[in-house]
Amino acid sequence: MTKIRIGVIGAGLIGRKHLRKLAGHDDYELVGIADVNAEQVAAEQPGARVFKDYRELLAEARPDAAIIASPNQLHAENGIACARAGVHILIEKPVTDMLQTAAGLIAEVSKASVKSLVGHHRRHHTQVKTLKALLADGRIGDVVGVSAIWATHKPATYFEIAPWRSQAGGGPILINLIHEIDFLRFTLGEIIAVEAISANRQRGFAVEDTAVALIAFESGALGTFFLSDCAVTPWTTEQGLGEAPEFPFSGQSSYRLMGRRGAIEFPSLDQWTQDGGAQDWNRPIQAQANHAASIDPYVAQLDHFRDVIRGVAPSLQPVEDGARSLLATLAIAEAASAGRRIDLRERYAAFATGQAAGVRQGAT
């Protein structure tokens, strides 16, 4: 079968990761890379066509698809240009930096009928699929709540390489928590309300370094989330899964999902139930191991993107769904700033209405 001609827009930290995965993937042919630091990228990627401007990549290399790994605030611009060129997109999270630009992107993608996939790679883990299956089977009964942590200490070089990470929109809420919010939506269902507090005392940047969120789900479950990029712990999903070399493997679970009949830790998938399925605090609680093979989620994501482009699978997360994860995450940042509870149901409805209007306007 003919290889998919693909370009990569943005060759920073995540862009280089995609390039490494593409190098070993037989279904894709890399036809170009676009990055403002074109000379440096060309030195790092010998043999690749490198463009300083992504528009030159689209016009001259004419890819079938593109991976958009540019800074968040450029996602919409890049994605709209790809859609208008008839290029399918795998767009890194967050889908855009603002809901207004997300609506514009959705309209253009719909108008052009190109395929889209948002890069919440965690959805592709076998452990995540197994967790969803265990919950669907009622292994812990109705989920009552979830307690979660994402806490690690980012080095100074992380901010020196990309100074935008120390400015508004570049903190751990939008860079890191958005992955976790998407994971929670994917496994436990829609989030309908949030509250939060945040602090920047440790780093003193214009953006938060620590935050705590309270989350209400449509199912009635409640959740708490502690987030920090300046605390040394073994409790991140990356460390628990060993999915990235930047995060040495810890094997520790950072999620505890609690139900009427038991509990499950993630990513270990250890399950806790009382003997005979009892629901009595006087009965001992026993552990049961559940197993799921570890895979490279970025390779699995490329496999899925291939299938989406070829029309043999629906997108696991089109841009419309990625925008809902963005909406919930932005609401947490807003709640932390305003110090109040935010109900998301009206916002989902308003966004869907505006999104539909944008699509209609784009189709005329």
What's the quick description here?
With 364 residues, the protein is α/β, with parallel strands linked by helices. It has 12 helices and 15 strands.
What is the CATH superfamily label of the largest domain? Dihydrodipicolinate Reductase, domain 2
CATH topology (fold) name of the largest domain = Dihydrodipicolinate Reductase, domain 2
Helix and strand composition category: alpha/beta
C-alpha Rg (nearest Å): 21 Å
End-to-end gap: 36 Å
Count of discrete domains: 2
State the share of residues found in helices, binned by percent. 25-40%
Give the helices and strands as they follow along the chain. Answer: EHEHEHEHEHEHEHHEEEHEEEEHHEH
| Strand residue content | 15-25%
Low-confidence stretches: 358-364
Q: Biggest β-sheet, characterized?
A: 9 strands, mixed
Write down the CATH class of the largest domain: Alpha Beta
Q: Total helix count?
A: 12
What attributes does this structure have?
alpha/beta; disordered C terminus; Rossmann fold; 9-stranded mixed β-sheet; 2 domains; Dihydrodipicolinate Reductase, domain 2; globular
How would you describe the overall organization of this protein?
The protein is built from twelve helices and 15 strands. Strand 4 (65-68), helix 4 and strand 5 form a beta-alpha-beta unit. The longest helix has 20 residues, at 319-338. It folds into two domains: 4-121 and 298-318 and 345-363, Rossmann fold, CATH 3.40.50; 126-294, Dihydrodipicolinate Reductase, domain 2 (2-Layer Sandwich), CATH 3.30.360. It starts with a strand and ends with a helix. Helix content is 39%, strand content 21%. The strands form two sheets. A nine-stranded mixed sheet has the order 14-13-12-11-7-10-9-8-15. Strands 3-2-1-4-5-6 form a six-stranded parallel sheet, sandwiched between helices. Mean pLDDT is 93; it is low at 358-364. With 364 residues, it is α/β, with parallel strands linked by helices.
